[in-house]
């Protein structure tokens, strides 16, 4: 009886340790592309099929999702700002570091998340590095930058859903990283585009 209790307690302890041990690598589970309903003659809508993405396209989408996760947590001061370099390089990283430092020096705090949707990777292109442009919609409507009195310093015209194109590049030894962001021309719900 004592042996069974010891074995049971030991098994539970091992399961807790394995389940609570932090992972060495950070992964973001892939979000399948959004499906949109297709109008039919009947009153019900039928969703379109999910497109097949190449390994490079999926890696680029994963990199974008990882970037937004890290960016939101770093800007809320829930994560070391050096972690920004785990998901971005180039102007994307520089711009994020500058914003982080400006907010800190001005005593501003961030609440909420910048969210993304409708991610659509383009075809991989071999430039200096393998590159994929990912179109998406960025939603800043639930993101606030607060002053020391708790007032939101973002103007209402900054709280928008906007189309963007994110450049993602592959460093063969290190993986895929967001390198720059530009305005997009695709339509986003709530953007007026």
Walk me through the structure.
Strands 4, 5, 6, 8 and 9 form a 5-stranded antiparallel sheet that branches. The termini are far apart. The longest helix has 21 residues. It is built from 3 helices and 9 strands. The protein is α+β, with helices and mostly antiparallel strands and 193 residues long. The protein has a single domain, classed as Nuclear Transport Factor 2, Chain: A (Roll), CATH 3.10.450.
Summed up, the domain count is 1
Would you state the CATH class?
Alpha Beta
Distance between the termini: 71 Å
**Helical fraction:** 25-40%
Q: Describe the largest sheet.
A: 5 strands, antiparallel
CATH topology: Nuclear Transport Factor 2, Chain: A
- What fraction strand? 25-35%
Instruction: Count the DSSP helices.
Output: 3
Low-confidence stretches: 1-49
Shape: globular
SSE run: HEEHHEEEEEEE
Structural class: alpha+beta
Give the tally of β-strands. 9
What is the arithmetic mean of pLDDT? 78
